[in-house]
Specification:
12 strands; six-stranded parallel beta sheet; Aldehyde Oxidoreductase, domain 3; TIM Barrel; alpha/beta
């Protein structure tokens, strides 16, 4: 997997905000009271269940921001598969700082690894087709860049990052604009030459109308497998075919086998189960 790392400045901004939220107005009063200032410790981040790692650089940033003397040594890379008992990273140095950064580091690692693991589950389930699993804009405020990175770590593809990087005409746009065709033409008259247009359709009749106006992609929303097969045939390669609705590891193969190019699922980023990863004292 060719997974490009996120720029440190993006990671640090998110991690710094999380640490400031946790430290509050007086810092880590528990560790400061209980742990001697000179105490050193060595701990390991250990997987409690199988999955896919994502967010190790967020962990590294958390400990470095708390105390630059802490040494973070990763044993895996993001996108790597892990199993119960696998050590993702070792951390050594000032004990107070390690305990202060522990929860923020684990929050990022567990959340992002959960997204990567859920994505990988669907990516593996549809690997026999040409379809890709994609995320949506249903993300945690402030963490979209991180959650979409985790989707890539799990072998998925990213949908648009925001309202400003692509046109996606949905049902309410269509209703207010006066129809599928009217909405597409209004969008085309406004956008720049590098901006693509996707339109959401619920019926085959809407699809036929959309195709007459040549969108770049069509979002086939909540269609049955039979409808999707017919929709793909009507599209005939003239636009990217994306399916959404009821996507999970069990339903994804049937949907992918209809010939669609993309399958999108919002729950990957807003509801994926956190991967259980612990911090174990090693000495």
């Amino acid at each position: 997997m060719n997974l490009a790392p996120l720029p440190n400045i993006m990671i640090e901004q998110a991690v710094r905000a999380a640490l400031l939220e946790d430290l509050g107005r007086a810092g880590d009063i528990t560790s400061d009271a209980v742990i001697p200032a000179a105490a050193q410790a060595r701990v390991a981040m250990v997987a409690r269940e199988a999955g896919v790692a994502a967010g190790l650089d967020f962990c590294k940033a958390a400990f470095a921001l708390v105390d630059p003397a802490i040494v973070f040594t990763p044993h895996l890379v993001d996108g790597g598969r892990l199993f119960p008992g696998d050590v993702l990273a070792e951390i050594s140095g000032p004990a107070r700082g390690i305990l202060t950064g522990e929860r923020v580091a684990l929050n990022f690692l567990g959340h992002l690894s959960g997204i990567a693991s859920a994505t990988r589950g669907i990516a593996d389930a549809i690997a026999h087709t040409h379809a890709k699993i994609s995320c949506t804009r249903k993300t945690t405020p402030g963490l979209r860049f991180a959650e979409k990175y985790a989707v890539r770590a799990g072998g998925g593809a990213n949908h648009r990052f925001g309202l400003d990087d692509a046109i996606l005409i949905k049902d309410n746009h269509i209703a207010i604009a006066g129809g599928v065709g009217a909405a597409i033409e209004a969008a085309r008259a406004t956008i720049g030459h590098l901006v693509k247009i996707e339109v959401e359709v619920d019926t085959l009749e809407q699809l036929d109308e959309a195709l007459r106006h040549k969108p770049d992609a069509v979002l086939l929303d909540n269609m049955t497998p039979d409808m999707l097969c017919e929709a793909v045939a009507r599209i005939g390669g003239r636009a990217i075919a994306e399916a959404s609705g009821r996507i999970n590891a069990a339903t994804a193969p049937v949907i992918a086998e209809t010939g669609v190019d993309l399958i999108s699922a919002g729950w990957l980023t807003h509801s994926a189960k956190v991967l259980d990863i612990g911090l174990d004292f090693a000495g």
